[in-house]
Design a protein that fits this description.
58% of the residues lie in helices and 18% in strands. With 151 residues, it is α+β, with helices and mostly antiparallel strands.
């Protein structure tokens, strides 16, 4: 239960949801459904869920336009439409992606130039690792933009 609450709070933080704003959720509890039903009030309070918009089910299909939180056998879907300003979030992500792509381009140019030949191997390795991390982050942002487009 605490891990689920922690992950829901992390998603709220990721999308910069105001602390007082209660959000909707569809939670597929699988074999843990009875435990979730018993503790739904605690879950609603600590994860700041709207009690009127929380659905506890045994299983469900993935919901479009929702952030998914997976903790063991439990999957919580948090609809983005009621949680964030979709246009503002898309704009923020596009801006973040553009800045990241500029840094990726600069890093690639640096590694393609004389830097890679003259710099110590550990420095070059760190730069390559940094580049790989930036590419992974850019892919995550693109996926998030796609998810928001479907919301």
């Amino acid at each position: 239960l605490m891990a689920l609450i922690r992950e829901i709070r992390a998603v709220r933080s990721q999308y910069d949801v105001k602390a007082g704003h209660r959000i909707a959720a569809t939670i597929a509890g699988g074999p843990l459904l009875p435990m979730l039903q018993t503790n739904v009030d605690i879950l609603n309070f600590l994860a700041r869920l709207d009690p009127e918009k929380v659905q506890l089910v045994e299983y469900t299909n993935p919901l479009q336009g929702a952030a998914a939180v997976v903790v063991g056998d439990v999957v919580a879907y948090l609809p983005l439409a009621g949680m964030v300003d979709l246009e503002a979030e898309r704009a923020r992500l596009h801006k973040e992606l553009a800045a990241l792509e500029r840094r990726i381009k600069a890093s690639e140019a640096r590694l393609a130039g004389p830097f890679a030949e003259r710099a110590p191997s550990d420095v070059v390795a760190r730069e390559r690792e940094r580049l790989a991390d930036m590419k992974t982050e850019a892919q995550r942002i693109r996926e998030e933009i796609d998810r928001l487009a479907k919301a």
